[in-house]
Amino acid sequence: MNIRHNLRFLLLWPTFSLLLLTGCWSNLEIEDLGIVSGLALDIATESPIEEELKKQGGGYSKKDLITSTYQIATPSSSEQDSKGGGSNQKPYKNISETGDSLIQSVREISLRRDAPPIGHHLKVIVINEELVRSYSLEQLLDFPLRDNDFRPSCLVLISKGQASKALESTDTTEIPAFRLIGIVDNEYRTSRILPPLSLAKLTSKMQSGSSFLLQNVISSRGEVKFAGAAIIEGKTKMLLGFLNEEELDGLTWLTGKGKGGLVKTFNVETKQPILYEVESMNSKITPHVKGSNISFDVNIESEGRISENWVTSESTPMKTFIKTAEKSTEEEVNRLVNLVIKKMQEDYQVDVAGFGNQIRIKHPKLWEDIKKDWDKTFSEVQINFTVNITITDFGTSEISR
């Protein structure tokens, strides 16, 4: 009886298996979707196409506040390249829509294209600096944060100048949004790239009420460059100002979060450049509380190598030269750190280096009392720091001490 039952089950099992392989009844083919890889937000400026469509009656009641530009991948051109012969068609298309609501802008594009934009593969959001001076990040990113169509892991950048320009390229083989993501991956080669801040991480930053940084990007003629960082004020969530490249370099040393980088100094005697390459970087911030007085000690340490040396003098012993190079590197790092401390405490009066977080960890009760006005308090605290540089090798040669 059991054998007959088992045999019947084996014969019916293929039929049941077919019922489980019916697929998704509501699926959409990828060719029928507008895969958005990048989004740029700018002060409202209608494109020539929008102006022409409006003249022909293609308008609706709105306040022109924001121009959103969607970078949509075009798989057809990529397929042509893979088949050989190449193609002059770019693998993306940028479509702009001007209005007062991001979600309505998305829906308006559905009136212009057969493939509606979808943000499941969104890589980057670039926001124009003037827009963040006029509206808070909470307002500008409310729709992307609420809508499940937007990918929470996408990178958020600020742009000096028109944000949509960062989503343009003269290279017909690349998608600009992917290029921006690729630049972030170079943080192991330079100390002027911030740790990436995704849409999801940005939420917690805004909820904390503390000031923070977003990477700044500039663009020209289809080329882009990460150049410094934008300071977002904690209370307003609006743009306060910028750190230039040297100041961001100093901040990286102050926090010890760098994965690589260079420090250029000059030999006192020959005036020739010496390049110190970072192999490791560490910083320890120690808070001190005495009554109402708060101060910090920062210990910065780094090991690295001399990667390029233009000093041609052979009369100086190697050990003497290394000690001189270490000292001059320490002096340059001191200069960079002093630059950013002055910028934070005097120019903007904000803490974007995480000093307040150390108070929160070591003195939680005190932090509850001062966190609301921490930026103002921070501008008056004493910060002492030391820098210790150790050169471990000279190119392919190790140094014996």
Automatic annotation (TrEMBL):
Primary location: membrane
What processes does the entry annotate via GO biological process terms? Answer: spore germination
Subcellular localization: Membrane
Sorted alphabetically, the Gene Ontology cellular component annotations on this record are: membrane
Task: Provide the Spore germination protein N-terminal domain boundaries.
Answer: 29-214
Tell me the ranges covered by the Spore germination GerAC-like C-terminal domain, including all copies.
228-395
**Keywords annotated in UniProt:** Germination, Lipoprotein, Membrane, Palmitate, Signal
Q: Where is this region: Disordered?
A: 74-95
Q: Which family does it belong to?
A: Belongs to the GerABKC lipoprotein family.
In Swiss-Prot or TrEMBL terms, this protein is called Spore gernimation protein GerC
The organism named in the record is: Metabacillus litoralis
